[in-house]
Design goal:
By secondary structure, the protein is mostly beta strands. It contains no helices and 5 strands.
Length: 64
């Protein structure tokens, strides 16, 4: 898994009825885009996480 600052981390719900959590990656702490990542969730709180198999990176679109 590789990400850059500004990408989105989506953590999918693990049980029925649990919503996905979406966070913006504000810092990549690993080498060459690898975890861990410092992320900011939609409600404003920040955390450091190493995403598991229930997560995906949505890369930001680069505007030319």
């Amino acid at each position: 898994m590789q990400a850059t600052k500004g990408d989105r981390l989506v953590q999918h719900g693990r049980v029925v009825g649990e919503h996905d959590k979406v966070a913006e990656i504000v810092e990549v702490m690993g080498e060459k885009g690898a975890p861990p990542y410092r992320v900011r969730f939609e409600d404003g709180h920040e955390a450091v996480c190493s995403p598991g198999p229930d997560s995906e990176i949505r890369h930001r679109e680069i505007q030319l």
